[in-house]
Write a structure and sequence with these properties.
single chain; seven-stranded mixed β-sheet; alpha+beta; 6 helices
Length: about 240
Amino acid sequence: MTQDCLDSPSTASVSQRLPKGIHIIGADKPSAPRVETIPIPKHSSYYKDVAQQPTSWSYLFIHHMAVKSFQKWLEAYNADNTHPTKQPFFIHQATSYAYKNAETQRGVKKIVKPTISGLVFLQGTVKSIQKFLSQYFPQYHLVNDRCHGRPASIRDTIMQPFMNVLKAHPEQVTLLNAPIEKFAKDHVKLRVLTGPFKDYEGYIIRIDRNRQLVFDFAGHAVALRGVHQEDFEVAE
């Protein structure tokens, strides 16, 4: 998981700032450790290694009206055996139903639209995806991780549970407009120890009366519901 792009290290007493109602392994020890949040340098080899992994994911935002045609093109491209390689992608779409005529409330139509408008994930090294886009969609560009100033890259181990929860419970995922630094302030970073989001790191924040895990997702703050009942430990 990419780390928070905080301006400077911050140290705080765990006993003063641990969220209530969360099972944190080791939090009941008499001498609670102190936590430091230290940003990874912009030119960290950690980030470079992720970007070079063929299983990693990057993403782009396109106009929501173009998503459907973009998806159909990708499906046709991957089904064409003349292409030596495929381009794995992920676009989650939610299905809803509405009346064809709202006034008379007659007839039902199915509405399929992206869960997160315009968001498209592509799998591969950053270099290979950029080459693919340059060849077929030069008007599109990968979104930069604002913490590093280069195209975002997400480990597959992080991406898989994220895709699973979008497929099963898309209402549990919210992209937040505020930067991750806002949520990191005065909160202790925790690591999930159990459940499908094991090894995710973030902050337990109360949003809309629900305790949610807010974590850095390739430079974007994302809130995830339904995780607060898992076991946690302080991420040092």
